[in-house]
User: What shape does this take?
Amino acid sequence: MDPSRWFGAVSVENATDAATDVLRELATMLDTVKPTAMDRVRSHAVSQGHDWVEYEVEILLAHRQDQDQDITLAVGAQGALLSWLGTHDHVYPQDGTSERPWTTVVVDAVAAILRGEYQVIDHYRGESLVKTTVNDAVEGRTLLTVGSLASLLPFRRVDHVERRSVRFDCLG
Assistant: This one.
């Protein structure tokens, strides 16, 4: 599948096999889920790299109406970093199996984010953010929790939470 169908700019000439595998699988997945709110002009896949040396390809899935819902992937031979709604997750080669390589794990996570299945839940005490969790709303499990050590103390009770998810209006 030609990724230029989904991305306004594609320039990954010197990318590793892992990065090109993610891009190829991503284009196939996008054909399946059909995100109608994706801005194909602003979306891109470029080898210019990311802020971290080990991730040489940056892939942006841009939201048509709300840039806060953009999804960014930084991919390299040693893994991928997925960023959305102010949080992030790492996927490493050891996260895959012989039946399901890590590149597929990355693309499956992006598909879940696009469909709004991954909820970012911010836990507050007053106006202070105590911790952030990412839940898989379909499977009903917590994928990751990020917060300070103080968030574990009993006096740091949460008095309200805010749930957010990305919506790319997928048809498939």
Observations:
- Residues 17-33 form the longest helix (17 residues).
- The beta strands are 9-11, 44-46, 57-61, 71-76, 79-84, 87-91, 118-125, 128-136, 141-147, 160-164.
- Helices lie at 17-33, 102-114.
